[in-house]
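Reviewers asked in the last cycle whether our approach scales beyond single polypeptides. To address this, we selected a multi-component target totalling 308 residues and predicted its structure end to end. The input consisted of the following lines:
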Amino acid sequence: MKKAQIIPPDDYPQMVSKSDAAKMARALRAPDTAARGATAIQQQSQKLQLAVHDYVRELENAAGNLPLVFEKAHELRGFAETAGLRSTGRIASGLCRYFDEMEKLGTVPDHAVVVLHVSAIARAARAKDEAGRMSDTVVKELAALVAHKVAETKAAL
Amino acid sequence: MRSLLRSLLNSIGVREIHEAANGSAALEILRERSCDLVLSDLAMQPMDGIDFTRDVRQSPRSANPFVPVIMVTGHTERHKVEAARDAGVTEFIAKPVTAQSLFARIAEILERPRAFVRCESYFGPDRRRKAQEGYAGPWRRHGDQHDHQVP
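The resulting structure, written as structure tokens, was:
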């Protein structure tokens, strides 16, 4: 077996000098930096929510096109929660998990499960009380449905 | 997602940010401009984050095969995360992205840059995160036990 070559950090170009890197890392870990970042997200929340609604519309229009449904759900999982739409993000996350499980099992996702999730995502995103108790129940029920469907598929293989 | 990451980077004073819709477009940017850090989503089309990272690390046309790559990914994609690690990703951030998680990864890259490993089947950051004192093997590489210490 040919020996692996180890290239230490000093032997390849770094972003900044060691002393600057230490200073920058300390600044990045400071609580006020995190607070500034959180404020930046908050300032974007209206814009982010509009983007979430755009993605929800695209998700609804993607019906039947599973790769496109996955792509839109993946985006929603990525930032709906950050935009303040917690339940929308959680339902989208559940749908992505279902796609992942079905891919691992080499099976096509059940159309009804996908449609239910898409409908729940749209309703949650447009609900006035987005993160309310009803949304929590929907998230739990859909997670149970996914678990049941995955178990059913595994048993059938 | 790109808009969110841009806002977060702006909040820490990063001003020069180049955006790309997918891996192929990002490779074009990397060939034309010098970049200090890459933030990539794992799920992109037509070129995903795994193929993109592999190209950055291994392509003879790559402008900077050592550039740190932070991969933004959903927590359910474990098999894909492993594939991304094996393609040469430096750090991962789980969605939903928060200011704290992004800044912590950048701080880690700055403060503890990883050694790179070049072997027949891999080029990228050392995938071994921890030095285990008293580790007795098995050794994956010839000569490891004699002359390699994880930094």
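The radius of gyration of chain A is 21 Å. We regard this as preliminary and will revisit it once experimental data from Aim 1 are available.
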